[in-house]
Amino acid sequence: MDDAGMTLEARMGQLGRAARVGAAALRTATAEQRTAAIRAMARAIPRHAEAILAANARDMEEAAAKGISGPMLERGLLNPDRVAALAKAIDEVADIPDPVGAEIARWTRPNGLDIARVRTPIGVVAIIYESRPNVTADAAALCVRSGNAAILRGGSECIRSNLAIYAAIAEGLAEAGLPKSCVQVVGTTDRAAVGMILAGLDRNVDLIIPRGGKSLVARVQAEARAPVLGHLEGLNHVFVHAAADPAKARDIVINAKLRRVSVCGAAETLLVDKAAAESLLPVLAEGLANGGCELRGDAAARAIAPGMVEAVEDDWTTEYLEPIISVAVVDGVEGAAAHIARYGSGHTDAIVTEDAKAAERFVALVDSAIVLVNASTQFADGGEFGFGAEIGIATDKLHARGPVGAEQLTTFKYVVRGTGQTRP
Amino acid sequence: MDDAGMTLEARMGQLGRAARVGAAALRTATAEQRTAAIRAMARAIPRHAEAILAANARDMEEAAAKGISGPMLERGLLNPDRVAALAKAIDEVADIPDPVGAEIARWTRPNGLDIARVRTPIGVVAIIYESRPNVTADAAALCVRSGNAAILRGGSECIRSNLAIYAAIAEGLAEAGLPKSCVQVVGTTDRAAVGMILAGLDRNVDLIIPRGGKSLVARVQAEARAPVLGHLEGLNHVFVHAAADPAKARDIVINAKLRRVSVCGAAETLLVDKAAAESLLPVLAEGLANGGCELRGDAAARAIAPGMVEAVEDDWTTEYLEPIISVAVVDGVEGAAAHIARYGSGHTDAIVTEDAKAAERFVALVDSAIVLVNASTQFADGGEFGFGAEIGIATDKLHARGPVGAEQLTTFKYVVRGTGQTRP
Hints:
The structure is a homodimer of 424-residue chains.
Chain A lengths: L7 H21 L2 H17 L1 H17 L4 H7 L3 H15 L8 E6 L5 E8 L2 E6 L3 H13 L3 E5 L5 H17 L7 E3 L6 H7 L8 E5 L2 H10 L12 E5 L5 H13 L8 E7 L3 H14 L3 E4 L1 H6 L4 E2 L13 E7 L1 H12 L4 E5 L3 H10 L4 E6 L6 H4 L6 E3 L7 E3 L5 E12 L3
Parallel strand pairs in A: 3-4, 3-6, 4-5, 7-8, 7-12, 8-11, 9-10, 9-11, 12-13
Antiparallel strand pairs in A: 1-2, 2-16, 14-15
């Protein structure tokens, strides 16, 4: 997008109209063409590696100068390995089966009407995300795979990196004979551009996907005039039931919290069943502490495992994304479900128990996108589900819940084939 | 809801919280309990028939006094047969398979994780509709079938009728041991109540379904802070292709327009292929005119069939819901698709042709919820699709498109069952 004297509004309007043109091209392209475009995008990344790394170095310098802190900076940083990983991730999306045109269902009515439910692209998908350049590559590839035009608006900290990655993406699209407006990166850090996207760019946005922290999600919820596929934070719980196997519980809790602390599938709260807290909690607390995790407990938890910091109300609603976990003692499955209903974000919650009835009760009571029995919350991931790459984990209840991959980025239409039927 | 000195805001807040309690009860009820509740609701209607008819008579008097006109009044009118039909329609919903808890998919990952995608209720569904008391009965039954609490806000013209029908519904719920907050009718005609529902009643509304005219839909789109399942108007087209069988085309066009003019599946625009308009259009025009239909044509159409009124720009975007049809001559499948993309509402569009390639091209180009080949647009109906009763035809692209029945009112969650798996 050039800045040739146009107002932001005019530029964003143009971007929206261009996206609609890109969407039409992608929708009528063949699966082979979409695959070719993704492969070409992947091939273009190494050619642009130097430029991408240089752009990223400037982004990181500026971020550091602004005083942006450790984990946030770490997320945005690229190195040669990470750039190679971008290309690999894009290429893997080319292997995902093309969902467009697939028949989800087909049946014949008594009057002979043949009704098919057929997957179709949604149209134009706008993704608003914070400071991870890999999202630019993943989202572009997934949108092309699902036949949707993409409008990508990443965090301003990574604007140069995102635009440098986009140069490779645009080259790949051109190589496959698709307009570069199939994917567009918003080339300004002006936050007013986000407002215009949320307003729908004159009905040229069919779906908005926010990915980021609470303040971004809150803004999207307050302002969006187009449909939103919500990706809230992962305020995930592991409930260790009285009938849990202690060793299994310890392994799951440590993995759920500490395998990677910065992912949305990381556990943030440990709930321990009152009926066995005396025996279970010390094992779990020791395991976490040995892994370098800070524990913040309620009064009951601290009485049993005294090394904990005192948890305050905010701890139950904080997505730490750091080696910190809040710990509460609850009264059985019902107590755990009540805590999760009150404080959770409907993302991913797990129970550890050898009691099948307790497990099924937990599954029935907890209304989160992903409910796990005897497994780590860190499995909340499109790849782990077998979907391939994902845009994120949807926590809204509509359209898609859980990992959002290529298939979840489609809608469908009914195709009804008749032989002259009229309705009596 | 009583008016005991509470502000509207307090009353609506209470209604939202009560709906959440109703939703929890419905979600944990068994399929048998939900069925029993629907059957009891149906049985209660005849006991309340006299009260319902008396309430409706008062509604109709008041509407007539306000100068509300023919078709709108006719839609709201109840008589003993229509009250009996309410009960029958509710009872038929009890026969629809209960969708809650159904496994949509289930697979095992290489690491042994067993992943199931299981249907769950959405939660609290608010339906905002205009002046058809049968929606009160249908929506209540469908929401109970799908495990959702319902907040029903019908047109003020039918407020007494809706409340009288609700008395029967509440009795049915109580008989089945469910709280009457599983279904609630907003008992005020104050339009500010709609604004509060659109604002989400403190996150106690999970889905808003608007059913009504353009001004209602526009208001919902402008104000809603909760997810919306859009039911736009049906600006439906029948395109008669050059290779159409003339007799089949005539029957389909007449049926699509005139079988019932007031339903959302009625055709509003006839598109005729330029290549055969000279021979086809007179046949179609004569058939429609003989059926009492007014034709409003563009210049090309009027040149061929001179009895038409001149169509103005507004005619292409008007959902008449009356025996009036606009007529345009277009250039082949591409011309028809372009007209539909420009003026259509993405509801239901049909092609009549004996040319299979032209039919498939039309299906590919027209991105409406329902695309028909050689059949009447009046098949746009949940019953005709085999879904049983419906809330309406969704024209948004997300979550559900086309007829919205019990299954379309559910979401899903992933249940992942493991044996202690942690993520490497």
